[in-house]
């Protein structure tokens, strides 16, 4: 019996007369969550209607269509490239007989901890004019091509998003029934044929889940295309907003939401037929793939990826600290450690609020199994799928028109973080709650404990690791959020990411070294959390 079933049956036995009040409370909570998500986003439609008859004209404008086509093309290229990189890496680290598999697993997962806009910043510095790699190759007569534009943005985004596909595919491979592959091999199927006919269909849902995350990230990313001088939807929306063209920015935001909806719908159709995909009827763990002497050359793929995504940017950050010359002086822009404290302060607040709201939502949805509780848990994922730039513009407009006292305040910024990242806490707490043995809670109730006392004495200590994990994930993703922080922060309130943004705009690479190192170090904790969860 699954954790959800145990919890649901337990809830049926021990709830009783308090159900009406509990359901009323959850109805109020669901209503509040829907209002918190729908009202600000709905305000975009209100702003867009101020354009009147120009809505159709601007929607079909050649520049708007060009930006749409470029954005969709970027999503398609990055998603395809991330799949082509992530799936082979997952197979190598799970099935293949390569040496040091655990080491390579950790190494190729780590780029997920590096904000992609830092990778873009490092690439521009390394390969741009007077960059260390350009200077090193110049005496050899080698001219480094420009890294900016569509190709550069595609490569950088791929390097920092393929871990989504890698991790979800790896999870599917680890849950694969190896006896199925072995049976195919005994029927004279070669390795490639067995992979194509048995393994691949089983891991398609996992690949699709990772590809969805990559597509949503590539569509919503703001910093990387901006640093790479590639005009996509997010940058186009930001430029219209800063030019005080609020109606146009709102219209573009609605269009971006529509594209997001199309991606979600496409993924749901692709992953719809996943019956049995994760079922294990025998030996869990994918069959071993003996590469023979090829196991040593096979290590070149993870090594190359780690070199480009980790070693190169780290070396560039170190160069920023010690190199002199234009763009590397420490006189025009002053870094303050208060920026780091501001990042920690608002991110901690977002993590605390997210956990407080996510805890009852996750526990109730796991134990009750009602449509209302399920809806309450699903609604927040709308915010998670909403691009940060769209949410930020919606909140700016909504606060100005409805709640001017909250315009550009810390509470509004924290609220944006909660809306965007609370689902991470919900998912983590749900996973932990499913593992709780309902008989323990039932025993506490039969001993005279109230529902609240039983939860505090039994359930809460058991799900504490999930709560901590959820809070850590919200904290770390809030630390890296760029567009919402840029648009919603109070005047004069700088964080690590806004300072890096200012340094990039001014071309002062040296000033970005310390905050970049700090951000990567703190963000790296997220991978420690993910890998620790995998070991449990």
Explain how this protein is built.
The protein has 536 residues and is an all-alpha fold. It folds into two domains: 1-44 and 346-481, MetI-like fold (Orthogonal Bundle), CATH 1.10.3720.10; 50-321, Orthogonal Bundle (MetI-like fold). Helices cover 74% and strands 0% of the residues. The protein has helices at 3-14, 19-49, 54-59, 62-94, 101-109, 116-127, 132-137, 150-174, 178-186, 191-220, 223-227, 233-242, 246-270, 300-322, 337-367, 371-378, 381-385, 388-401, 410-434, 438-446, 451-480, 483-488, 496-506, 513-535. The radius of gyration is 25 Å and the shape is globular. The chain starts with a helix and ends with a helix. The model is unreliable at 1-17 and 272-284 (pLDDT under 50).
Beta-strand percent range? under 5%
Which sheet architecture does the biggest sheet show?
Answer: none
Protein structure class? mainly alpha
The helix count comes to 24
What count of structural domains?
2
Give the N-to-C terminal Cα separation. Answer: 20 Å
**Mean of pLDDT:** 78
The CATH superfamily of the largest domain is: MetI-like
Computed Rg: 25 Å
**Could you please say which CATH topology of the largest domain applies here?**
MetI-like fold
Number of strands: 0
Estimate the global geometry from the Cα principal axes: globular
The helix content is over 70%
Please provide the ordered H/E string of secondary-structure elements: HHHHHHHHHHHHHHHHHHHHHHHH
Identify the CATH architecture of the largest domain: Orthogonal Bundle
Give the low-pLDDT segments: 1-17, 272-284
CATH class of the largest domain, named: Mainly Alpha
